[in-house]
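Progress narrative, work stream C.
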Amino acid sequence: TADAVVDIVSDIAMITFTKDAAENMNRRLKRIFMNYFVLTSNEKYMHLIEDMSQIQITTIHKFAISLLRKECMRMGIGFDSQISSETFERRNIYHSKLDIYLSEKTEENPNFVHQLTIPSYELEIMLIEFCDQLYNRSIDIKSIDTSLLGNPIESIPYFNELIERVIIPSEIQYANDLKEKNMISLRDCMINIHKFVENNSIRSIGINYKYLFIDEFQDTDDVQIETILGLQKVFGNNCRLFAVGDLKQSIYRFRGATLSAFEKVGGNSDLWKEYSLNRNYRTDGRLLDIFDVVFTKMGAQRLLPYENEDHLKSRVIKEYADELLVRKVETHGKDKEKFMEDLFNEIRFQKKEIEKLSKQKKLSKEEMTIAILVRYNYQISNLVKAAENTELVIKDTEGGNLFRLPSTRDLYKLVLAITHSYNKVYLVNFIESNYVSMKLQLSNFNGYNSEEKLDELVRILDEYFMLLLGKKWDEIISDFETRPVLVVLREIYEATKPWITYSSDRELQLEYKSNYECLLEKITQKYSREYLTVNMIGEHLKINITTYQEEASRSKEIETDEVNIICTTIHKSKGLEYGTVILPYTADDISSTYHSGLSVNYVSGKLIYSYGSGHGNMDYSDGYMIDTESMEQEQEESRILYVALTRAIRNVVWVKDLDSTVQQCWGNFMEVIE
C-alpha cells in the first residue's frame, strides 16, 4: 500500500523455477530502478539497486534449501550440513542391492539370468532414473505403499520386486548414509520442507516475509503448492501471496505440474483478487497477430486453453519487413547433410539481417541473439557438432560440460602423471597437455628401450620444472606427499599458466581459468570433511569424465556487438526472450505416447508406469490410461510450441520436413500461416 514501508531485502521473497529466469528477473528489476533514478534523480532508487544483490530472488529448490538449513537441528543434522548432489555413492548402493537381488533370484531359478530382457548395467541405470522421475514430482518413493502397485508390466514381470527390494532399500540406505555424513540429498529438500509443513511442525524460523511472489505458478506440482501455502502461514498473518502464471505455458507435466494449479491454491475464492494481462512488451505486434492464427487453430482442437481474449497485443513494431516476420525453410529430413546445410544457410541469412539492422540502431543483447529452440538435449549436441565443420559458432547453453572442458582434462592429465609418475603413456599425455605444451616427436625415440624412453621423458620434465619452479620431477612428486595437495596444484598451475597455452584469445583464457576454479571449488566442497589427497582427486575426475557426468560449467557473459547464436531447449528458454527464434524440428508426432525406457507417474496415491523396449513395443502397468495420456501429451506439446513462439522479439523461422507424413505435428499448425 501507499503508506507501507517495504524493505525489499527482508520483506520480499521472489521465487521462480529456473536459475536463468531468476537472473533475468533480477536484471529487469535493476533496469527498472535505474530508469526511475534517471527520471527522478531520487537516490532511493540507487539504494534499491544496491539492495538487489541481497534480495531473495531464487529458484524454488534453492529457497527450500535455505529454509532447511534453519530447520536442520530437528532433522538430526548439524547446522553446517552440506547439500549433496553426488550420484556415485548412490549408484554404488543400487549396484550392491541389485547384485544381491539377482544372486538370490538366480539361486532360486538358475535360468533367471537368461530371462532378463535388459542387461544388468542398463537395469541399474533404469532403476535410478525411475526413482528420479518421482523425485522430479516431489514424490518420496521411500514412503510409497507398495501394496498398491498392482500387476507389473509383461516385459519386466519382476519389476515390482525391484521396486520393493532394490529401489526403496537403496534410497533408504542412501538417505541414512547422508545423514551420518551431516548431509542432505538435493532431491529430498522439497520433500522434507513439505513434511514439516504438512505435520505443522515447522516453527517460526526468524523469517517474516510480507510478500511472497511466485513466478511461473502453472509449473508447480501439488506438493509445492501445499508447501507454499503452508509457508505463507509460517511467515505470519501479514504475508501476502502473489502468484503469476499462464496456463498456456504449463510445460512441466513430467514434474507433476497440472492445469489446475490456480484452482488448488484457492484462486476461485473471495480471498483472491485476479488480474489478467494480455499486453506483450517485447514482441512485434504484427508477429503476435500471426501467432494468433496458429494458437486459434490449436484452441479450436482443444489442445490449447486459448480464447479470443487470450490474443496477445503489443505496441512494439520492429524495423523488419513483413515478409521476414515468419519464414519457412523447406528441406529433406532424410538427408541429414542437406538438412543441416539448409538450416545453416538460413542462420547465415538471419545473421546478416541482424547485422544490417544493428548498423541502423542500437540493439539489446537479446535482440542480437538467434535462438535455435529444440525439445531434446541430443538435438543440441547434433546441431552444435554439425556446426563445428562450418564458420558458425553455435553455443550450447545447457552448461553440463564441466567434465568435458580442456581445463578439466588438462588437470586430469597432470593428476594421472603425478599418481603414475613413471608410466610412459601418462607422462607423454601430460607433456603434450597445456601445462607443458611440448609436442613430442615419437620418431626421436626409435631405438630406445623402455627404460631409456622413460629416462628421456623424466629428463624433459626435470628441465621444464627446474626452469619454472627450481625443482626436478621427483621433487614435484614428493611435494604431493608432504604438502597440501591444493597448494601444490596451485603452484604448478600458476607457474605453467596452461590458459595461455590453451588460447591467445583473452576471453577463452578467462573461460579456461574460470572453469578451473569452478572445478576445484566443487572438489573442495565434496571432500570438505576429509583429508584431500591427489589420489582422491584422480578418482573423482576419472569417475566423472569416463561416465560422462553432467555438471554445470561457468560461461562468462561477454558484452559484444556481434550476433550471438545459441541452441537450447524450449523448457530452458522459458521466461527468456530472443531477437530471432528458429524451430528446426517441427515434424515430430506430438500424439505418439511411445518412448524408450521407463516412464513413471503417481496418480491418486497409486504408482503407474510404462515401458518402451526400443523396438516400438510399449507395456503399461495397471491404471495406465493410454487414451488420456495421448491427449494430455498432444495438449502439452501444443503448449510447448506456444512457449517457443512467444520467446521471439522480432521474427521466427521454422523448418518444414518435406519427407514427413506425420499428421499431428507442429509443422501442420505452422502451415496455417500464409
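Work stream C, second folded protein:
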Amino acid sequence: MSCIYPQKNVTRRSIVLSLLIIPFNAYFLMNNHVYLSGLPTTISLFYNVIMVLVMITILNRGLKYVLPGHQLKRGELLTVYVMLSIASAMTGHDMLQTVVPVLTHGFWYATPENEWQQLFWSYLPSWLVVSNTQELQVYYQGDSTLYTHHRMGMWLMPTLWWILFFTVLVWVMICLSLWVRKQWIYQERLSYPVIHLPAEMTTPGGPLFYSKLLWLGSAISASIALINGIHYLVPAIPEIPNRQHEIGLLFTQKPWNAIGWTPIYFLPFAVGLAFFMPLDLSFSVWFFYWLWKGIRITGSAIGFQSLPRFPYVGEQTTGAYLTIIAFAIWNLRRNIVPGFRPTSKTGTSAARKLDYYLPWELWGGIAGIAILVFWMRRGGMSIGISLIYLGFYFLIALSITRLRAEVGPPTHEMYETTPHNLLVTLLGTRRIGTSNLTMMGLLWGFNRGYRAHPMPHTLEAFKLADIGQMDRKRLIGAMVIATAVGSLSAYWAFIEMSYRDGGLNYPGWGGFDQLQNWLYAATPTDWVAVSFIGLGSIITTVLRFLRFRFIWWTLHPIGFALTGSTWTIGWLWFSIFLSWLAKRILLNRGGISAYRRAAPFFMGLLLGDYLVGGSWIIVRLIFRIETYVFWR
C-alpha cells in the first residue's frame, strides 16, 4: 500500500506556518523548563502542540466564512502537528533543554575541589564548547543581551555543529522509521494510541467536536484544572483534591518502607490517554508497577545488603528493552537481508544475473551514521566506541518507538537505559579511556530519560500520512526542516534566556558530574549488573513465550520494562488503573460498540485538561507568577 498520494497535502503554506510557530514554541518550552513547571515534553502527547492545533482548527473554521475555499486541508493540519511535535521533541526536557548547557557548564562550574580542569578540559573539543571566561560571567549572571556581533559570532560555530549532529541523528531515525513502517503499520497493524486525538481533531467536518460526550469529558477535566488553578492563587477557595494522597508515607518500618514513593493521583489527561491503550497493556502497566514494589519489599525483608542496588531495576529494564526490540527486529528479518533483482529480462529465471540491492532508506541511514561517526571521531571518540554507542542508541530509539506504537503510554522514561551506562557496565571505564568518556559526558544530555525522544514522532508521522493521504516524500522533507529549525530555535531560546535572566537560574546539568565520577573511580566490567541485564532479558523472553503460547495470558513484557522507572509511572499508575477499569467494564457490558461510543468522553478528559491546565502555564510565563501545574 503506497503512502504517496496525488493530493499535495504537505503544502508550502503548511510548512511556512509551522516554521513561523516553531521559534515561539521553543521560547515557551525553554522558559517553562527552567522553572520545572508543567513540563509538556515529558508526556507522550505534547499538550503545547495540541493547544496550537486547537487554535489553528478554530481559526481554520473561521476562514470558511471569511475566505471560502482557502481553509487548511486535513493533511496540512497534520503537517503542522507533525512539524511542531518534532520541533518540540528537539527542544524537549530530555533533549536540547539538557544539551545546550553542555556548551558552557564544564568551564563555569570547574573548581579546584572538583579538579575538572585537570581531569578533562584538554579533551573538550573547542568547536563544541564556549570557554571565554569573561563572556561566561555575563552569560550566567544575566541582565545582558545575546544580540551583539561578538557574542553572536562566539556562539555560532558550536551551535551549528550541534545542529548538524541532531539533524543527521533525526535523519537516521526517519530512515529507520521508513524501514519498519511496513511491518509495524501494515502487517502487525499496531494501534498507535498517542495519535488518536490529533487524527480525530483533523477529520473533515469535525464530527468529534459535535459529540456531547466530548464536551462532558472536557467540562469535567477543565473544571478540575480551573478550580485548582484558582485555589493555587487564592487558597481560601476550596480545591478538588485529585493528587493529595501518598500511601508510601504510611509505611515507616522495615521492610514495608521499601515501598517508597507511591502516590494515588487522579490526572484526567492520563485517564484519557490510557483509554486508548490496548486493555492487556494498560493492565500490565499497573500490575508490574506493584510487582516492582513487591520485589523491593521482599529484597528489604530478606536483606540483600551485599547488593545495595537490588533489585537492579535499571539493569533489568535495560535487558527487557533490548530483548523487546531484538524480537521486533527478528520479525523484520526479511527487510534486513538484502534483496535481489534481475539485471536482465531475457532468458530463464535461473540464467538471469542477480544483483544485491538495499532500499534507499537503508542507504540513507548508513550515510547518516557515517556522518555521525565522523562528527564523534572529530570530537575525540574512537570509531569503534562511536559505532557501539550509536548502535545502542538506535536500538533504544527503536524500542521506544515500538513501545509508543504498540502501547501508547501517557509517558515513557528510561533513565538508566542509556548507551553510556551500557558501555560502562559492559566494558568498564578503564577500557573506554578518558577521551571517549569525555565525549560520552558531552552526549549525556539527550541520553538521560528519553521522555521527549523524537523517533516515535517520525513513525507516527508516517501513520498520520496514511490517515491524511499525505505525500510521504514531502513529509520527510518537512520533518528534516522542523528538526533543523527546531534545534536552532532551541539554542537561540536557551542562550537568549540565559543572557537575559542569568544561566544560574537553570536547575542544573549532570553530564560532567557523571564524567567526574567515571574518571575519579576507574571501574572494570560490572558482572553483577551484567547478570541482572541478562535476568531482565530472560524474564522478557518468558513473558513473550507465555503470550504466544497461552491465549489467556494477559501480562505483556512491555509493562515489565516500562514500570522500572517509578517517577513518571508513579504519577500515572492510578490514572492508568482507572482507565483500564472503565474500559474493561465497557467492553464486558457493551462490547466494541460501547468502547467506540465512549471514546469521545475520554478524548474530552484529555483535551480539557490540556487546554485549561496548559493555559495556567502560559499565565505563569506572561505574568511571572507561580500558578497551578496540572502535570509536573
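The chain has 24 helices and four strands. No further action is required on this item.
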